[in-house]
Amino acid sequence: MTDPWVALEPGADPAEHLRMLRRAHETFTEGGTVPRPVRPVVADSWRRSARAGVGPDATPSVELLDGDLGAYRAEHPLARVMPLFRELLGTFAADGEHLLAVCDAHGRLLWVEGHASTRRRADRMNFVPGARWAETAVGTNAPGTAVAVDRPVQVFAAEHFIRQVQPWTCAAAPVHDPRTGRVLGAVDITGGDGLAHPHSLGFVQAVARAAESQLALLAPEMPATDLAELSALGRDEARLVVGGRAVRLSRRHSELLVLLSRHPEGLTGDELLCALYEDESVTPVTLRAELARLRRVLGPGLLESRPYRLTVPVESDVSVVERRLETGAVTAAATAYSGPLLPSSQAPAVVRLRERLADGLRTALIARCDPDLLADWVHTPWGEDDFDVWRALAAARPTAAVRARLAALESELVWRPAAT
Predict the structure, then answer these.
(1) For the purposes of burial, counting CB atoms within 10 Å of the CB of 371, is it exposed (0-12), middle (13-18) or buried (19 or more)?
(2) Helix, strand, or coil (residue 99)
(3) Which phi and psi angles does 110 have, rounded to 5°?
(4) DSSP-based helix, strand, coil % in the chain, nearest 5
(5) Bigger pLDDT: 278 or 319?
(6) Which Gene3D superfamilies does the protein's record reference (predicted)?
(7) What is the pLDDT of residues 213-237, one digit of tens each?
(8) In whole angstroms, what separates CA 332 from the centre of its chain?
(9) How many Å apart are CA 415 and CA 409, to the nearest integer?
(10) Looking at residue 164, what is its pLDDT?
(11) Which residue has the higher pLDDT, 175 or 53?
(12) Average pLDDT of the chain?
């Protein structure tokens, strides 16, 4: 398979592939094992569906009705780009006897439009506005899986987890808030087997990107004084720029700013204690004193309490890397990554975030298999002993120097004494 997110390889026989998928689906639902020909993205989704307790004969439930649905749709950010979705996908859906569907980040369908007779068929399986099509509710399906994995995805016929959806094929792509990178929902095209063509996935992904560009244009411009910038990668003491003023933060204040910047809704004192301190004997008084000092450093009006929260949006270098990884911009993400997050910090929440960000970037670099990007990583202080990346580099660029370094690392792994 040249692209694991595309349902059918060029030249594949849809009928034969469908027969194979039906046998594989039966094998999984009866024995819990996934035969090898099933795509990894589908196999992983089937396993998540089973863990969530979804049965192959499940039926989607309708969660939003009439007035509740109308009010929710009117306030949803994707309402602003529905005219764009209709312009780009509406005619294609109607002429091709397909459906255009848009869901929120929880997999609830907000709009389902398109060919009239196709809509009537879809109604019978509750593919209707207000119904919950999250992967955890109805198993593998394009809109639900797209928001679950935050990737464009096709689902062909019997790749669907519940049987009543297996006559359908769909392709969906997540749509993100252009400012925060947060998933707002997904745009989907649903219909017959013809949608398994790679062009369908590319088309729906392009529509999602167009929607994100439109949302960026529609968003009000934010004055520079109302946006703070936080740099915390590759340094133990973060740098905050706010209101035209640069502030170098202490290590503890750096940890606090990183955590608060990721929780604009705020964090309670208890939540901050758990996030910051391994030692459970640290008292709330200690934390309150630290926050009082931070408030003086930041200046008036920037830090509020009950819960503790920042009063201005914060753009951090961490969120920049995350957004670029989410959109597949691996080179741009690697460029923005100037080192591990607050490398000396032992705050539990910071350690988890640091490891997750580094692992996400490493995984993307290995998957991209670009020898230049891999070489850049292993020639940094944090990547010089990264065995997995050296191994990927040896596969992509097997020079004598690279092979020698990989062999040295292998020897170290073999002779390294076990931890006691």
Answers:
(1) middle
(2) strand
(3) -105, -40
(4) 50, 15, 35
(5) 319
(6) 3.30.450.40, Winged helix-like DNA-binding domain superfamily/Winged helix DNA-binding domain
(7) 999 998 765 444 468 899 999 999 9
(8) 17
(9) 10
(10) 96
(11) 175
(12) 89
- Summarize the confidence of residues 408-420 as an average pLDDT: 70
Coil vs helix vs strand at 303? strand
User: What's at 407, amino acid-wise?
Assistant: A
Q: 10 Å Cβ neighbour count for 288?
A: 14
Range 14-218: architecture per CATH: 2-Layer Sandwich (3.30)
Query: Is the predicted pLDDT of residue 102 greater than 90, yes or no?
Result: yes
User: Is residue 305 scored above 60 in pLDDT?
Assistant: yes
Domain boundaries, the chain: 14-218, 225-315, 318-415
Q: Does domain 225-315 have CATH number 3.40.50.620?
A: no
**How crowded is residue 59: how many other Cβ atoms within 10 Å of its Cβ?**
12
C-alpha dihedral sign at 17, 18, 21, 26: negative
Number of Cβ within 10 Å of residue 349's Cβ equals: 18
- pLDDT, residue 332, reads 81
